[in-house]
Amino acid sequence: MNALFHHRAKIIETYDGSLPLALFLKQYFRQFPVLGSRDRRILSAVAYAHYRAGKAFEDISDEKKQIAAELILSEQDGVEYHRMLEGFTPSEASATLKLRLAHLTKLGIEAQIDKILPEKIKLSKGIKQSDWLERLLGRTAVFIKAEKGFEKDIQKRLEKAEIPFEAGSTGDFKLKQGVNLEAVLEPKSYRVQDWASQQIAQYLPAENPLFIWDVCAGAGGKSLILSEHYPKAKLLVSDVRPSILKNLEERFKLHRRNLPQMMEIDLTQLPEDIDPLQDQKANLIVCDVPCSGSGTWGRTPEQAYFFDPETLKAFSEKQKAITLRAADFLADDGTIIYITCSVFSTENEENVKSICKTGNFAVLEQQIINGFENQADCLFVAVLKRTK
Prior knowledge:
This protein is α/β, with parallel strands linked by helices. It contains 14 helices and 11 strands. Helices cover about 35% and strands about 15% of the residues. Helix 1 (about 1-15) packs across helix 3 (about 35-55) and helix 13 (about 310-325) packs parallel to helix 14. The longest helix is centred in the N-terminal third of the chain and has 17 residues, at about 35-55.
């Protein structure tokens, strides 16, 4: 067990948040092949617990006590994690945050939970600080979306493999973390997509656009929604990263969708022209802009741990620049859907207000898609229409 304590300390000492924690851990474990699968599993749980809950226990000098507190508060209840921490028993599985805090009190441990999330940042309407904290410290589910025609097959395969799941009404499934889906399901039959992201379909215009531009398309989750919702529309996708566009292309091929037109472009550099948009302007533009990611910190707690509030201004300016530049290529009767995975008003309502004022838009609707109660992410979406 002393070796595990050593590796835990080394991980915390060397990790600076510049890489996703999952990627950093993979690279770290490659350096130490002597670590078996059980050791890697324990160290991963301990590391994630630290970046979820560590700031609440910075005053604890006893490493063993600190690790136990972090595991308990971050809802890591596996017995094997606590064998290395004799004397600190796990709380009840799936206990509420209130019960986990009470359990820590019984163990003589005080949690300073007010230190975990950034203070004095206005949240979007519909989000409570307490709910956000509970999501960061709780378990996050995995959501998949079935490709059309595969809903029953997926359900049968999950049942046969005795994998617990909840089936939604639109071909979506909710599962626990850690399920090896590739061993059970056909890759072409589903896509991993958070519940909140799936809800974007509800905000798409009823009329069928001829030409759609997915700005900041990423790996293509929302592009797949667009191609599914508007199968006859011309679809252009763009991103600054060629590697991510390659991933998007592979996903479209896997799910047998018509390939969209792809373009590598950085809209913050304000290019004078964009070739695919010279002859025809877009009827629908989706701007899923770079943001703090604060609505997804339940899955990426390291972002909360290393978050610098001073970066919010830069994010806000970048979001406005991208959206307003994209708007130059919007048809007169077109629609812009502005999206962030943030819970901060600065990136959401306040930014939309500024965009509307500068670009002459009206807000048709805007709201937070609150997935916290469903063990999912939070997204903000605003539907904008050009005013004449």
